[in-house]
Amino acid sequence: MAQLKSIIGSILRDIIYAQHEANLYAVSLGESYGKDGKARGFDLPNIMFSDIEMELRYAVSRSDDEEEQANISYSKFRKYLGTLCAEVARTAINQGISTVLYSGIERDEDDKAFFLHLKQDKELYSRFHVFLFKNLKNSFDSELYTMINGTDGKVNEQNVTDRLMTVIRSKFLNDTDLTPLFSGTDGKSLYKQCDEDILKAVSSAVHTQSDGKTFRKSKLYPRLDVEVSSSELEKLPSSAIQTFRFKFRPAETPPTLMDTEDDLDDFDMK
Fold first, then answer.
1. What is the biggest distance separating any 2 CA atoms in the chain, rounded to whole angstroms?
2. Predicted TM-score (pTM) of this structure
């Protein structure tokens, strides 16, 4: 006796895994072809599953129980991340401006000019906010599952904060245009203070936006225990035997691509 969903799920997983193994083997053959000059450039042997039709005969042996089925709503989580990244971009910029301009560090005006202009020039502030926001948002295009607790659907605040700070450091604090400002003993001290202040502000923003939120949704469904072995089906009347036909068509799913606009690579802070 088994659950119908487990049987169908196992079949589909095996088909997908078979395609995966075939793809990996084809790639491994590429190395062998490349080592031999005569075979270099040959098309790699490969196979792609087309339509697969299957028929499953089963009989329901028990259906009086219910079970909870839960999943994470990643579409809602992405919307949440969009809102969060917009706020975090503002938070990081505002905190950076405050820490640098009120630090009292002795530097030429040119070294602190970017932060001064951010404070005074709304158009520059808006452009840099969009730049930072897009980079923050795009950073979540991979391994999104690590940002949510799979058990309760709550945000993994530490992982989210770590990823946000990685981008803020890479695209903001560590920009080479700011090297003169953060050089020397006093500059390194200012960088550390700026990093700590932004981290504290970002952590607070993440907690405020995440507190009480859950992206886990669940429903109760009837549990179907079935018999599928021929020996068990032979014992049952034909009227009790059901037939499930399904067509499996592997879909080509391209990987999620990050925004590759040129203006996301670097921001001119001079």
1. 91
2. 0.64
